[in-house]
């Protein structure tokens, strides 16, 4: 029996929750929440000192976001846009983290009700920061009771309740099942990374993705043959076009020198052009040289780099096997680097 209940919702959800505390004629003049507590107590369940819930902001927590024009916090009336979705993700993450960081508490999260987006985001938050001792649940309600406005729980007082067509249904016949939803507690896997508070939900997700990429890449052996313009990944060989060869060698050598990732393709262009020009000088204009072929274009811009990375990613995915793991380590949004330990890369 939980000690307290916290609801994360929108302005509209908070308005609907008022019904839980308002006296109901169907329930004999008491509120649905009080009726539930009395029913549980009659069953001999430990209600005293538990199931704390109310109408305060500490019990019903409305998702907020920052109004970009005014730089003021505002409550969400609903989740209808990408900005609203990001706000909900960050808010849910903060709520989950505030509970799980206390070793004396256990969180039982419910993904029942609300927008599907909220259920998916809550599941993600639990996966990212919850502990193995926490739990995730869903509630399944038999038909037609889920859609009845006056149905609250099986066996509620007051007798049968009507549906929209006027038909009456006995609450005692309702079946409510609590389903325990399994989840993987990544917190145990990435304790070091998840132990510090990230700025946003998106940043935390990317942090975990990076760790997964690096761990997956630990089993790779990558050989780059600069004479044959050929890439080999755990025995899988594929030929590279001149531009693909140039870009992969540029990224591979940076990885071997443990140089930091660029924040974007645009940030990488200047050093890539310097690397390209150096290669052209080393090739000495010899016919057939991949350096020479890669240098036919004028100075590269971010679009040239993004295009070459795209072709390279497509080629690695098409090769199948472990080459697909290497494809995940190529540059992506917010990171322009080869996310592989340099010791796993061999250049000849």
Order of helices and strands: EHHEEEHEHEEEEHHEEEHHHHHE
Distance between the termini: 65 Å
Reading side by side through the largest sheet, how are the strands ordered? Answer: 12-11-10-13
> What spatial form do the alpha-carbon principal axes imply?
elongated
Mean pLDDT comes to 87
Rg, alpha carbons = 29 Å
Number of helices: 11
Helix content: 25-40%
Structural classification = alpha/beta
Q: What is the total tally of β strands?
A: 13
- Residue stretches low in confidence (pLDDT < 50, at least 5 long) are none
Q: Sheet with the most strands?
A: 4 strands, mixed
Strand content: 5-15%
Give an overview in words.
The chain is α/β, with parallel strands linked by helices. Helices cover 40% and strands 14% of the residues. The chain has 11 helices and 13 strands. It has helices at residues 11-21, 32-42, 82-100, 116-129, 191-194, 201-217, 242-256, 265-283, 290-294, 302-319, 323-328; strands at residues 7-9, 60-62, 64-67, 72-75, 108-110, 135-141, 161-162, 168-169, 176-180, 222-225, 230-233, 236-239, 345-347. The strands form 5 sheets. It has a 4-stranded mixed β-sheet, covered by helices on one side. A hairpin with a 4-residue loop joins strand 3 and strand 4. Helix 3 crosses helix 4 (116-129), helix 7 packs across helix 10 (302-319) and helix 8 packs across helix 10 (302-319). It is elongated, with a radius of gyration of 29 Å. The protein starts with 6 loop residues before the first strand and ends with a strand. The mean pLDDT is 87.
């Amino acid at each position: 029996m939980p000690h307290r209940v916290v609801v994360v919702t929108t302005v509209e959800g908070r308005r609907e929750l008022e019904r839980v505390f308002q006296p109901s004629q169907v329930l004999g003049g008491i509120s649905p929440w009080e009726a539930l507590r009395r029913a549980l107590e009659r069953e001999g369940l430990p209600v005293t000192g538990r199931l704390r819930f109310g109408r305060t902001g500490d019990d019903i927590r409305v998702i907020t976001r920052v109004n970009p024009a005014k730089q003021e916090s505002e409550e969400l009336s609903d989740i209808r846009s990408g900005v609203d979705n990001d706000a909900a993700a960050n808010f849910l993450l903060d709520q989950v983290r505030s509970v799980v960081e206390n070793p004396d508490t256990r969180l039982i999260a419910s993904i029942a009700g609300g927008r599907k987006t909220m259920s998916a985001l809550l599941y993600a938050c639990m996966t990212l920061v919850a502990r193995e001792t926490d739990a995730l649940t869903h509630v399944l309600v038999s038909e037609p009771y889920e859609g009845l406005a006056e149905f609250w729980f099986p066996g509620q007082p007051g007798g049968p309740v009507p549906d929209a067509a006027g038909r009456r249904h006995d609450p005692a016949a309702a079946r409510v099942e609590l389903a325990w939803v399994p989840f993987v507690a990544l917190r145990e896997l990435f304790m070091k990374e998840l132990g510090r508070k990230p700025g946003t939900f998106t940043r935390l997700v990317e942090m975990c993705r990076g760790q997964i990429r690096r761990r997956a890449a630990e089993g790779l052996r990558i050989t780059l043959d600069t004479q044959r313009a050929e890439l080999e990944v755990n025995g899988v060989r594929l030929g590279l076009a001149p531009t693909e060869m140039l870009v992969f060698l540029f990224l591979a050598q940076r990885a071997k020198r443990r140089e930091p990732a660029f924040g974007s393709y645009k940030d990488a262009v200047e050093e890539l052009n310097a690397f390209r020009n150096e290669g052209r000088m080393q090739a000495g204009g010899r016919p057939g040289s991949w350096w020479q072929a890669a240098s036919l274009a004028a100075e590269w811009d971010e679009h040239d780099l993004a295009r070459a990375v795209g072709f390279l990613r497509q080629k690695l995915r098409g090769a199948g096997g472990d080459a697909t793991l290497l494809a995940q380590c190529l540059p992506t949004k917010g990171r322009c680097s080869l996310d592989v330990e340099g010791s796993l890369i061999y250049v000849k």
